[in-house]
Amino acid sequence: MANEHAKCLKSLGVNISGVISSKGSKSVDNFMSSYYIEQKFTNLEELIINKNTWDAAIICCSEEFTFSYVEKLAKTQKPLLVEKPVTSKLEEFENLILYKNIKVGFNRRFYDTISFLKSRLDKERIDLVKVNIPESSISEGTSKNKYLPELVYSNSIHIFDILFYLFGDISWNSYVKSNKENTLRSCSLLGLNKDEINFSLDLPFDYPENFSITIYSNETRYVLKPIEMLKIYEGIDIQEPSDKFPHRIYKPRLQKSIVVESNKKFKTGLFEQDKSFIEFCRSQKYDSRLASVMDARSSLKAISKIDDLIRK
User: Which among 261, 288, 228 has a CA at the least distance from the CA of 104?
Assistant: First the structure.
């Protein structure tokens, strides 16, 4: 991700003045050479002491180090963009929520599909939202404090952020789950938000399926599957039985498809996100697509509540 951000920053005309790297790193010198970086800091204290030599920081490192970096650098009051999820420990967010200089990298908010839905759904009556998260249960190991697989916290949090961005907080209040050999195989949940929209969430682990969000609104069905592709259906055509196929077929009418525009040079959504962050650095310009610490906390809180609910 450091390379991905560096490519975006260079294209935006931003000078990368320095980099912090662990001692003995084999990649840092090539990274510095590729992006014409002059300063190399070997520890966080050195970076903070020299804070007058840089204007903002992007934090993309292993999750085990991310929170300590953010917590200490936040006190400099310099703008920070930190890769999600920041931390998987909800209590650690309490140390960050007062800082307005921290933004969180949920780049899928910048997808054309999500922007279209945000503008459209604000004006519509929504009846039901169905979410499918077929996450992998394979990870480096599950913490003793977590029941859900680690990847739900570190990867699927993108989906929870999209739900929060589009619909606000959701209260998940009932569930069913399937265990096999003391391993969680799947679970399904029902929830409501403040507008009394019904939500259903399925988590079938390790299955060949795409992440998806389906929205039923004003007799229109919006389908994000995968998240980079939006299909809009209105009405239905009925094909009566025939000799060739003796069954009635119901075909939803596809009205429109939107596919996220991709620039092969940049990770999808990242260039727009980094551009928004640079504008925030220069003018404190508000962009709701640029996630705050409170936004990230809300998504993690939703996952943690589901974790607590289904472990009972």
Answer: 288
